[in-house]
Design a protein that fits this description.
The protein is mainly alpha-helical and about 140 residues long. It folds into two domains: about 5-85, no CATH class; about 95-139, no CATH class. Helix content is about 70%, strand content about 0%. Helix 1 packs across helix 3 (about 45-85). The two termini are about 45 Å apart.
């Protein structure tokens, strides 16, 4: 198993585990245990350092796990959206893989669709319908 496949497998399973209600309850119980143990350690600096270090390490690891999971989910959703665009008759295939364009290029597409929406709202006020077959003039 390659390191990339191992990491994806690890983060997927770790995210599932940490997202369960049992894990949340376990974390709350550990915090309560730490709080209750305070008097036994005279609320010392070491006692505080334990929780600070533990939460810092967990947060640090979770940032990477969450980012990996979100990246994978976003990429999968983009592929699904691309397939819906590709398979829809009349849809503009130029919108496929839109997330890979520069911001200025995306802004041109956004302006085009904002204009379409504005025209549709004006049409609605005039009693027209706002559904139609897409034109073939994506800019």
């Amino acid at each position: 198993m390659s390191s990339q496949a191992w990491y994806a497998h690890f983060t997927k399973n770790f995210a599932k585990l940490t997202g369960k209600s049992f894990t949340f309850i376990l974390a709350i119980m550990m915090i309560l245990l730490w709080l209750v143990s305070g008097p036994f350690f005279d609320f010392s600096n070491t006692w505080q350092l334990v929780i600070n270090t533990t939460t810092t390490i967990i947060t640090f690891i979770m940032v990477f796990v969450i980012q990996n999971t979100q990246n994978r989910d976003t990429e999968a959703m983009q592929v699904k959206l691309d397939e819906l665009i590709r398979a829809t008759q009349g849809a503009h295939n130029a919108l496929l893989d839109l997330e890979e364009l520069d911001e200025s290029e995306i802004d041109l597409f956004r302006e085009h669709y904002e204009n379409l929406a504005r025209e549709a709202r004006i049409g609605l006020e005039a009693g027209e319908v706002d559904t139609n077959i897409p034109d073939n003039t994506v800019r």
